[in-house]
Amino acid sequence: MKRENGFTLLELLVVMALSGVVMAALYATFLSQQRSYQMTDQVVAVQQNLRGAMYYMEREIRIAGYDPRRTNEFTISAISAQSITFTMDFVTENGTLDTGETITYAYNSGDNTVTRAAGAGAQVIAENVTGLTFTGLAADGSVTATPGNVRSVDITINGSLGGHTRTLTTRVRCRNLGL
Length: 179
Fold this sequence. Notes:
This protein is α+β, with helices and mostly antiparallel strands. It is built from one helix and eight strands; from the N terminus they run αββββββββ. It has one helix spanning 9-62; strands at residues 76-80, 83-91, 97-108, 113-118, 121-127, 129-137, 152-161, 164-173. Strands 1-2-3-4-5 form a five-stranded antiparallel sheet, with helices on one face.
């Protein structure tokens, strides 16, 4: 009897079973890595969103009251837990003076955004925000709600995306107030 080269049915079944186990392990690893990537992406997105908003608020609140013409017209005009309004002169990118600008940062809980209003309308600077708090501090460090007594502002901003939350907090010393 002539022996033919080939595989038996049993050998083929064993190879297919082993291949299936290996493919299942590879697929499980892929899914795990994909979930990890998506989670990291959401964490980074919410953190960058909050950092961007904090950067703008911090920069402009720090120079609140800027008055190069010395008119004594500029200050923090309103501060509450979820909004702050202040006035200052702005030096534009080309070096000209944009006078008497009023800026308001506010938290909108209806659509979970932070807006910056200056002049004609409000512009969204952060999304997926779950809370924003402004706390005015007097020269001695005590909490004050009187706009004319504010010398520093504590800002706390919270954000959430896909169940991942982040909180940023900073204290901004206003350079041009109380001079």
